[in-house]
Amino acid sequence: MADTTAPGAPNWADLGSTDVPGAIAFYSALFGWTAQDMGPEAGGYHLLHLDGKQVAGLGPATDPARGTSWAVYFATDDADATAARVAAGGGTVVVAPMDVMDAGRMAVFTDPTGAYFSAWQPGRHTGWETAGEPGSVCWTELYSADLDKVKPFYPGVLGVTVRDLDGDPPYTLLEQDGRAVAGAMASPDGDSRWGVYFFVDDCDAAADRALALGATELFRQDSQAGRMAGLVDPQGGMFSVIKADPNYQP
Fold first, then answer.
1. Which residues constitute the domain of residue 240?
2. Which residues are paired to 184 by β-bridges?
């Protein structure tokens, strides 16, 4: 992954779950994570660690319409300016920029097709401490109901550039200083959303373990980027696992 501290790159992901204890049990068994309860003032939010390093967050789902879902955060040095660009670009500010104690400043948005994403302005919490390693996030991807509509939106909001790849289906990279930081493709089901991929040493073993723990499978396939599987956790949160091909260069 590219530098996750630079503005425009994903720097955090968290899960809003309808069953926090159940989600902790599932992901801990799947990836070997441990959960740290941040206390009553954090509203039930937990930091998830792998070998002592922060890899993700988990808290109660706050939107009944969304249910359990993973959220992707993009680094910014000014959450208020990012919110202004979202509004000017045709997106929606769902949660206005706010301080999260001394950890940082965050905001929640939707893009012009309704995909939720968030911004994180680091304070004490700077984002992932491990990414791109087994058991951690290695990629984030937008599934869009109207990819052409959002291609100019994210560069205007995040300061990234877009590059289309040849292939079937077509695929678009979001790049920061010439390095890919996220991807985008047409939604297979017409629902616009951001998704997360976790790196694993063995895709089939990880997917089989997830199924044994109560997940359901959306797909399992080989791709140029590596072998991957799409899964839904027992509470309804969609995520993917991938054994990435280290030789693949988009």
1. 137-244
2. 142, 172
Question: What is the domain count for the chain?
Answer: 2
Contact 74, 9 (CB under 8 A): yes
Instruction: Please determine, for residue 248, whether its predicted confidence score (pLDDT) is greater than 90.
Output: no
Same domain flag for 152 and 97:
no
CB 18 within 8 A of CB 59: no
Peptide bond into 169 cis (omega under 30): yes
* One-letter amino acid for residue 195 of the chain: G
**Is the model's pTM score more than 0.70?**
yes
> What is the maximum span of the chain, computed from C-alpha positions, in angstroms?
49
CATH code: domain of residue 80: 3.10.180.10
Q: Are residues 85 and 142 in the same domain?
A: no
Tell me the C-alpha to C-alpha distance, in Å, between residue 171 and each of 3, 65, 129, 194: 22, 29, 28, 14
